[in-house]
């Protein structure tokens, strides 16, 4: 047998454990496997001549991680950092690359959600920097981040300094 009929058939999962990560202007929706750790808010080491969204660098598990403001990356003002803010350490999805992890400021605690095809719908709208897709999950709006694009933007800044 050859052609498409010869390809193994794999079923798509009927449910994906995911997290809604709270931002000042909405939520990010990521698979649970993307989150490495939630840590307390801390001041990053300043970065010279960095883009506004690149808040500095954190030391985490013997790595230097960029701390990103997703709100600023997509064109909104820097949010006020309150006592309930956290930092999410996310995997870029490129474990063998130069930047396997980066950190994002959250405006609260992530919430576990189960994503099914029936509950997830694409939304219209132009994607800004760092955004892969606008979605609605059971009526709640969120953005699926483009983790590789965020990694590339961070590396681009690091390589030019």
Automatic annotation (TrEMBL):
Signal peptide range in chain numbering: none
InterPro entries, sorted: CheW-like_dom_sf, CheW-lke_dom
Domain CheW-like residues, every copy: 15-156
Top-rank lineage group of the source organism: Bacteria
Pfam families per UniProt: CheW
Name of this protein: CheW-like domain-containing protein
Organism: Microbulbifer harenosus
């Amino acid at each position: 047998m050859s052609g498409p009929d010869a390809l193994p058939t794999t079923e798509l999962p009927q449910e994906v454990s995911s997290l809604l990560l709270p931002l000042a202007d909405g939520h990010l929706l990521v698979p649970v496997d993307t989150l490495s750790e939630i840590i307390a808010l801390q001041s990053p080491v300043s970065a010279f001549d960095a883009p506004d969204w690149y808040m500095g660098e954190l030391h985490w598990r013997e790595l230097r991680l960029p701390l990103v403001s997703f709100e600023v990356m997509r064109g909104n003002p820097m949010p006020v950092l309150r006592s309930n803010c956290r930092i999410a350490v996310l995997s870029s999805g490129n474990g063998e690359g130069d930047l396997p992890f980066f950190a994002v400021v959250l405006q609260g605690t992530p919430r576990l959600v189960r994503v099914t095809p029936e509950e997830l719908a694409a939304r219209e709208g132009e994607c800004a920097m760092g955004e892969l897709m606008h979605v609605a999950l059971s009526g709640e709006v969120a953005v699926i981040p483009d983790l590789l694009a965020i990694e590339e933007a961070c590396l681009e800044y690091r390589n030019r300094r």
